Amino acid sequence: MKIGVVTFPGTLDDVDAQRAVRIGGNEAVALWHGDHDLQGVDAVVLPGGFSYGDYLRCGAISRFSPVMTEVVAAAEKGMPVLGICNGFQILCESHLLPGALIRNDHRKFVCRDQVLRIENNRTAWTSAYAENQEITVVLKNGEGSYVADEATLEMLEGEGRVVARYLEVNPNGSLRDIAGITNERGNVVGLMPHPEHAIEELCGPGTEGLGFFTSLVESTFA
Ligand SMILES: NC(=O)CC[C@H](N)C(=O)O
Fold this sequence. Notes:
Blueprint: E1 2-7, H1 14-23, E2 27-32, E3 43-46, H2 66-76, E4 81-84, H3 86-93, E5 100-102, E6 110-118, E7 133-141, E8 145-147, H4 150-158, E9 162-166, E10 178-182, E11 188-191, H5 211-218
Parallel strand pairs: 1-2, 1-3, 3-4, 4-11
Antiparallel strand pairs: 5-8, 6-7, 6-9, 9-10, 10-11
Glutamine is lined by residues 48-50, 54, 58, 85-86, 140-144.
InterPro entries: Class_I_gatase-like (IPR029062), PRibForGlyAmidine_synth_PurQ (IPR010075)
Organism: Nocardioides dubius
EC number: 6.3.5.3, 3.5.1.2
């Protein structure tokens, strides 16, 4: 599959995401924030970083990039989109996912290996995992605390749309330990931790993040 990886001014993890896409058996296509078309890709990854310097709120400016008009339109038609960390923030700002990411409750940037439970393996990006599989990946953010109103949280829980939950430690004050969510259709996933940094034994905490990049090959969304 051809997976586009978008670079915004200030993006940090686009090259790692492209590498993860390739190691996952897909072709990586570099997309730019100013692009007006998606070059025929089958799916898009919005990678982590500090797009537009995190001004206003993380992701608040990127949401208005030309490429996001295309990504939102394609996602609404069912194209798989994965937002990692800053990408998750952009997806919430774009209203492709509900809720928001706000400053960590302890007010410090956090960087650690984080254990997660994959609670929904029926999405385009998580089908390679077993239900409730526990994985360890990297977490690094300043504004990673997931918040939503009670009704939205109940809806997400009731519809099984919590994709991943923090285990052992809640690193940022996210409500209900939420680390990642999906939209109703399961094609759009936002995840605060970074699976693209856990794909090779040589660096990072093992290879348990790779499933996010191999799922699409087998997925019914493909
Ligand atoms: N690793 C990231 O993508 C960081 C996202 C964002 N800049 C934050 O600090 O929360």
